[in-house]
Amino acid sequence: MTKTSSRRSFLKKTATGAAAFGFQVVPSTVWGANERLHVGSIGIGGKGAGDVRDIAAAGAEIVSLCDVDERRRGKNMTEAFPKASFYKDFRMMLDKEGKHLDAVSVSTPDHLHCHAAVWAMRMGKHVYVQKPMAHSIWEARLMAQVAKEQGVATQMGNQAHAGEPIRRAVELIRAGLIGKVKEVHTWTNRPIWPQGMSTMPKARPIPNSLDWYLWLGPAPDRPYHPSYCPFNWRGWWDFGTGALGDMGCHIMDMPFWALDLKHPVSVEAESEGNTYLSGPISSVITYRFPAGKYSHELDFKWYDGSKEHRRMPPPHVFEGTQFDPDSAKKVDCILIGDKGKFLFQRGTTRWFVYPEDRLESFEESPQTVRRVPNEDVEWVEACKGGPAALSNFDHSGPFTETVLLGNLAIRLGKKIAWDGPNMRALNAPEADQLIRRPYRRGWEI
Questions:
Q1: What are the structural domains, with CATH classification, of the chain?
Q2: Are 232 and 193 a contacting pair, CB within 8 Å?
Q3: 86 phi, psi to nearest 5 deg
Q4: Pick from 311, 306, 294: which is nearest to 186 by CA?
């Protein structure tokens, strides 16, 4: 082991989507050192509640809160942010409060990420969006394009990207710690929510506090059921992106960044329990990348599944190390190069490198990636004119496209020859409706 150091008229007006989604304002604020960033937060339950508090702790002022469920602005939120206005509809929040806002955070279910972020960016607002930044490949591409057009500061919420373990690992891999990389294996114990469903549940009464049709947003119309909201939406394709979408943007991040990967040329998936409605119980996904500066032609593999459905790399991957698949479950990934193996976990710099003596000769490798206190400070400072956050949409857009490409392979059940620049499955024209999903009427972009 080696250790490293009015609402109806408003909705009628916006139902076409064209006027609002075409609106454009260029940010013109000139920041003083002590001025505070004014933020509106969309989605304030669950992870969103933590995001609101973390952004405030990074020095921003929370001006407005938005959630489709009024219970989300409970005692804790109202006491923490007593001056913040509250809305159920993010479009109304942006319309009414836009002149007071510099930036917006988006911590909704996946199917609303793009709509909220694009609306805000086209008003000139900086945006922070939880991972995965989009629900479809086309949405990820659009969000990156709009961010560039508007010149706004962006960040995808994959927190560890800002931490020392990932940033130091990127430096070491690029310095040649294990030579040019030829295999990457990444894994998770998700899903920890139901997947593999083949029927929709019967309708239940909508809670009085919840605006169900705002929660649905661009997704297909269907009756309310608690199997979707508030938490288990992740397992349903209409709302979430499954175990891969939930954890891929965390676990796959370091090797994707370190190896400076772009578009894979193919992707294929094995899965158990995949249905038209829901993500699989477990899956193994293989992305194939061309050779690059830091890697040979590369198989980049993803494994998921919980409990008895758990998928892990085969034993040979761990040959020459003290690990087997069972003992490595708490490690995020292993990179295999032509000079060694690197077992990595994003929450610590206590790594395992084989041969063990290789790390000693790389301890003095210089820092080439800047360090920041955390992702929230990095984004807030970027919004105020500082250096771009390193998980901005220039990076996280292509990365999210790659992650979500795995779901495309799962849903189609075939190996896909991928034309990344043009977002085309060369051998699967039926993929088009999944690459760019249709939206419920009134929510077109």
A1: 7-159 (3.40.50.720), 161-195+227-435 (3.30.360.10)
A2: yes
A3: -130, 135
A4: 311
CB burial class (10 A; 0-12, 13-18, 19+) of residue 366? exposed
The answer on pLDDT for 247 being more than 70 is yes
Angstrom distance (rounded) from CA 247 to CA 251: 6
**How many whole angstroms separate alpha carbon 413 and alpha carbon 217?**
28
CA distance 425 to 419: 6
User: How many C-beta atoms lie closer than 10 Å to residue 8's C-beta?
Assistant: 7
Task: For tokens 């992106």, name the residue.
Answer: 241
Beta-carbon count within 10 A of 142 CB: 18
The one-letter amino acid at 141: R
Distance CA 108, CA 45 (A): 8
pLDDT digit string, tens, across residues 353-402: 999 999 999 999 999 999 999 999 999 999 999 999 999 999 999 999 99
Instruction: Please state, in angstroms and rounded to a whole number, the distance separating the CA atoms of residues 302 and 147.
Output: 29
Nearest partner of 106 among 121, 96, 122, judged by Cα:
121
Query: 168, 4 in Cβ contact below 8 A?
Result: yes
Element counts in the chain: helices (H) and strands (E): 14, 15
d(CA 177, CA 179): 6
Q: What does the block give as tokens for 362? A: 């790389």
Distances (CA, A) of 297 to 118, 194, 333: 35, 36, 18
pTM of the entire predicted model: 0.92
- SS3 of 124, please? coil
